[in-house]
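Weekly puzzle thread! Below is a chain. First person to post its structure in token form gets bragging rights.
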Amino acid sequence: MHGGPEVSEDRVRDARKRCPGGYVDVTMLLALGMILIFGLAMIYSTSSYRAYDLYGDQMYFFKRQALYMLLAILAMYIVSRYDYRRLLRLSAVILLSSLVLQVVVLIIGTASHGSARWIYIGPIGFQPSEYAKTAIIIYTSARTAVESKNLCRPGCLIKVMILPVITIALIGVENLSTAIICFAILFVILFVGSPRVRHFVLIGIFGVVGSVLFIMFAGYRANRVKIWLDPENYADGYQTVQSLYAVGSGGLFGVGFGRSVQKMGFIPESHNDMIFSVVCEELGIVGAAFILIVFLILLRRMAVTAMNARDRFGSMLTAGVMAHVAVQLLINVSVVTNTIPPTGVPMPFVSYGGSSIIFILMEMGIVMSVSRGISYDETDI
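Winning reply:
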């Protein structure tokens, strides 16, 4: 007989396969790094003309985005070292704080493109809707994990959805596109966490009806549908038409990095939501396809992390972040190619913006925190 407790060979093998600081998904890091570097390069290319025209410095937007990105990477690293399971207890506070901020921005928010979306503290601007995406991911994942055995009951499902839906409705008052992204995140997490498909048919119908009502009660949103159907006959369709010119003129291999014509004032703020159109113009179908493939690799690694997380909460968190990146990317590319009505959604990790890059990289930090608990053999897929 042995004096100490028995330890299974499987546990010993798993312990040996874990690195001291936890598992590091190198493929995920490389894919993310490539996208971030690509984004910085494209921001320089797309913004240099406008930056020089406005500020006399071609690198004005590039330098600001580089600073935002450094802060975001630092935040991502700090979050990745934090045990994500501690977020379980903080989830309600995080979402409630987001809900309060949505009320505040409706009252004292600063307008951007006709909508009150920003809160300014001195010179620093903050977009509460970006925080809301992260808050909804954390809260819904936590409630789904805690109520996993009861989610098949409609009453429990409704209870889990109440706070996120209220938050989404407040966002939708001024920013329907972000509200749609938040609802998609909520839908995906609940769908992954619950086996009852019929519940999600009803949730999907609820989401579509809600979106239609928001469009009907805001005239400018209905006009966007008309512009989408026939952009050349409307003055507000100018950006869409110029974006399509950029996509079409790039051809297979593009006109060359930095040689876009459409960024010379034809596409308004081409370094923001419409940056993918300049990607297509300068790098062609091949360049655009390349960066989309890198995104798919990143999403695949997140899927692997979600499937192999040590607990349900980790799986739901990763699924939520994955939904955020995938849905936002899909909407952005669809708007640029006029597949859906025009709306302001940045390309994740690529478009210019401080709030968006900081919060989405913090979400990636959560994913990396989840992946630290995974052993090597579980991720060799």
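Puzzle host: Confirmed. Bonus trivia for everyone else. The longest strand covers residues 115-121.
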